[in-house]
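Notes from hallway chat w/ T.B., transcribed later so I don't forget. T.B. wanted the structure written out for a chain they're using in a teaching module, and asked if we could keep both sequence and structure tokens in one place. Agreed to drop them here.
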Amino acid sequence: MAGERVPARPRAGRPAGPGAVTMETRNEFPLPDLSWEPTAEFWAGAARGELRIPRCSSCGRLRWYPEAECRLCSAEPLAWETMRGTGTLFSWVVVTHAFLPQFADLTPFIPALVALDEDRAVRIPTRMVDCDADSLEFEMPVRCVFRPLTFTGVDGSVAAPLFVPA
């Protein structure tokens, strides 16, 4: 059933029982929860091929990660805006070992942080695609592309903003 939460297995060496810490995940994990209000517009924009980031309606600063109130002025209202989808590569790593089975078919892959041109303090967690890891450089220009996010053993896909060298 879509959206059904299933209990995670206890970690190796950890007893299950009274007082044990458990974690619940959605059947669609690690796909994002498209209905989660703070990021629903981000994912709705991605489905339309738009990179959407909220802007504080009071001070005008971009607010990423979307929080209840602005870090700068403490105002609550925000308005979502479409970004150009360009930026620079701030940080990345090459993952060669999948720590979760859902990522096994992706290895090696390159999770990254991209600083947006509209505001370099806004850094989008993403993945670099269509490039060789050895060709990546700090602050190299990148641009957004939208691709289906899929995982082994997980039904469905989600349009996601990924980045390529510009």
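Follow-up for T.B.: The beta strands are 5-7, 24-26, 52-56, 78-82, 86-92, 110-116, 119-128, 141-149, 158-165. Might be a good example for the class.
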